[in-house]
Structure formats: structure tokens, C-alpha cells
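Translate sequence into C-alpha cells.
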Amino acid sequence: MRIDEFRKAVRQEFGKRLEHATPANVREFLDKMGEREFESRGSRRRIEICEEQTTYESILKDFYARVLEMPPEEGMMLLWTMSFEMSFAMLEHDLSERFDHLFGEVAD
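Result follows.
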């Protein structure tokens, strides 16, 4: 996907200033984008995961090192979607804690 197509898809889904983004529809959108990317690569065959790293920290380091080697537009889209997902996941967690506190069960 090219950067202009990516921008168009994001704005079409969430609005020009992302005003329609919510934790739920962000997750759905990113799932659709991942599925679209997977299908566009003709990846209907079995997936094999060959991860050499053994800790979450080393996996992150490897990921960011590989992003530095990507073409700029590809790396930017990958980092944008990752940060968008993480930000809304944190928001969802925060909202969940707030609502659990407000509507949680009352101890007897």
C-alpha cells in the first residue's frame, strides 16, 4: 500500500482529524488492514514463525532495527499503525478501569 492510499483509508474510516476513532473501531480497522496486507501478498499458505529472539525486549529491539532498514514510507506506516494501536489500547484500559470503578460490584 502506498502512503497516499494509507492516508485516504485512515481518514475515510475515522475522519480528517480522526474524530471518529474509538478503541473498538481502531482495533477493527487495524485487523482489516492486516488482513488486507496478508491477502495482498498472496499469503494463503501456512505461516511459519522463525523468531530468533527469546525475550520481549530483544524482539522489540529487532523489530525497531528492521524498521530502520525499511523504505521510509513503509516504515512510517508500520510505526504509525503500531503507535495508534498501542495508544488506543492504553485508552481502552484506562476507560475500563474508570468504568469498573464506577459500575463495579459493591462489596457486602
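Note: The radius of gyration is 18 Å.
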